[in-house]
Specification:
Length: 531
């Protein structure tokens, strides 16, 4: 593409190398429990229930409540529904300073969030340790699943303008250097990509001042978006966290139960994002070349792919006390999880004019670091009325301000201080009820409510309700069904960075922001055998 004297332009922002933040730590540390269909139907209020293998995630002692061995398998289908709408700067604004269109997208996944084998050994004693259990279980503790689309028309800001502002101050030669070069000053890969793909360029012979291909230079030296742009942002996030548990639990005189979990957590997370800007009227976006010719801007696109894979280890211990034949109380505590995480990422960009197109792509970057998740504890109470009714309630606490990044070759002090300042505790309340309407058939219901741990986060609470059925044959076979509907915390996404500041540093026009509302529906079926 010919170099520009005065230019026009737009597009998006990309995560640069080493850009971990408090949000990344929370994204990898947070939990959204699955389990067996019975535990999900009861709102996962299982700390003081025991017996069901879905309870072991919450309290290791629960495995010893049963006097039999068992095997379970739980397949499921998850459907996410994601809506996006522009966020208004102030109440009563005529238009949102963001993508104003409303979009709704869906995503469906099949998975197996729970499986397990528990072996029960009867010691033959009437007092003391009457039986002990050993088992191996797998539980999904997070499901990353959404499909985001945001669109709108914007004549005030552009991604190209944001990238031009980010690149300002870096000499041209640094933006065309080798991707791995250690130049001074050192630009981000996204600044280099924006320049090499024609999204930004220098102007008026300046070496370190940039303008976006969607922008124009004004007679007074100012820069503004040339005309209206049709903007689009899309993202698809996938992945999960699985907790692979080795459990030991003991039954003391049918009154006191205690147990230990040794857990290995596997993390797999990926995202694909793109930003697209297209001239609503290309004739309004005229790019003039030094040789006197011109071209019209058509569109630009930037894409970013990212994946993180890791594993962590932790330990958990808990007890369950049968106070009376109907009343149980219980508690458990889990150590921080030490993760080793490897990230891989790449970006490409493309600018299309009426007479040419320019594209560039970064190599695949890779980085490895450690992360420590918070301590976690939970308490619970359960009450049974004969063999007919079960009521249970749990409280879980986790202080996310204690999350930490670690690396031998990178100083995370600033990020860890940010975590401490911006994050706080999450309070999780769970409740469930079960009624046995027939000797073989039970109906269940549950509710969960969680606060958001980020301080001053608006509309960040997470709630879910669930219902289910349970069938237990006179023999060894049993089956459970559950449906859960979750309303996930509302997200506020900046499509690209704010950059339209005046000389005094006052923001004149915010960049687009969207509100993202996601609902997740899970249907689970557990089949199991006792022996």
């Amino acid at each position: 593409m010919k170099r520009l004297v005065a230019a026009l332009m737009l597009l998006g922002a990309v995560v640069p190398l080493g850009a971990q933040s408090f949000w990344d730590a929370y994204n990898f540390s947070q939990t959204n429990y699955y389990g067996t269909a019975r535990s999900v139907a009861l709102g996962n209020a299982m700390t003081a229930v025991g017996g069901d293998l879905g309870s072991v995630e919450f309290n290791p002692a629960g495995a010893a409540v049963s006097t039999y061995s068992q095997f379970v398998l739980t397949p499921s289908i998850s459907v996410s529904s994601t809506g996006t709408m522009g966020q208004y700067l102030n109440a009563g604004d005529e238009k949102p300073y963001c993508f104003q269109d409303y979009n709704k997208t869906h995503s469906t996944r099949f998975k197996v969030p729970n499986f397990g084998l528990m072996l029960n050994v009867d010691t033959g004693r009437s007092r003391g340790i009457r039986n002990w259990t050993f088992g191996f279980l797998g539980h999904a503790i997070q499901n990353y699943q959404d499909n985001i689309l945001a669109t709108g028309t914007n004549g005030d800001t552009s991604l190209a303008g944001a990238l031009a502002a980010e690149a300002t101050g870096f000499p041209q030669e640094n933006l065309v250097a080798d991707w791995w070069a250690n130049t001074t000053p050192l630009p981000s890969w996204r600044s280099m990509l924006a320049y090499q793909s024609g999204i930004i360029d220098t102007y008026n012979g300046l070496n370190s001042d940039y303008i976006g291909v969607t922008e124009r230079l004004l007679p007074d030296g100012g820069i503004q978006v040339a005309d209206k742009l049709n903007q689009e942002y899309g993202a698809r996030r996938n992945g999960n966290k699985y907790d692979l548990i080795t459990n030991f639990a003991f039954n003391v005189s049918d009154r006191f139960f205690f147990g230990v979990n040794m857990g290995i957590i596997s993390l797999a997370y990926s995202s694909e994002e793109y930003w697209l800007e297209q001239a609503a009227d290309p004739t309004r976006f005229v790019l003039e070349y030094a040789d006197g010719t011109s071209a019209n801007f058509d569109y630009l696109r930037m894409r970013y792919s990212y994946e993180a894979n890791g594993a962590g280890i932790y330990a958990k211990t808990g007890f369950l006390w049968r106070v009376t034949n109907g009343l149980r109380i219980a508690a458990a505590i889990q150590t921080p999880t030490l993760y080793g995480i490897t990230e891989r990422y790449a970006t490409d960009g493309k600018t299309v004019l009426s007479d040419s197109e320019t594209s560039a792509k970064t190599p695949q970057g890779e980085w490895t670091y450690d992360m420590v998740s918070p301590w976690l504890y939970n308490v619970g109470i359960a009450y049974t009325i004969g063999n007919m009714v079960l009521l249970s309630a749990d409280y879980e606490h986790c202080d996310y301000s204690s999350m930490r990044f670690r690396s031998y070759d990178y100083d995370f002090t600033a990020t860890n201080n940010e975590i401490k300042d911006l994050m706080g505790s999450r309070h999780n309340f769970r409740a469930g009820a079960e009624v046995r309407v027939l000797p073989e058939l039970a109906v269940r219901g549950g509710y969960t409510y969680s606060t958001h741990p980020q301080k001053d986060y608006l509309n960040g609470d997470h709630s879910s309700w669930s219902v289910g059925l349970g069938y237990s044959s006179p023999g060894s076979f049993f089956a459970d069904l559950a449906v859960r509907v979750q309303t996930l915390p509302e997200e506020h996404l900046n499509i690209y960075s704010d950059y339209a500041y005046d000389a005094a540093g006052v923001l004149q026009m915010p960049s687009p922001t969207v509100n993202i509302d996601t609902r997740l529906i899970d249907a689970l079926v557990t089949v199991g055998w006792r022996f």
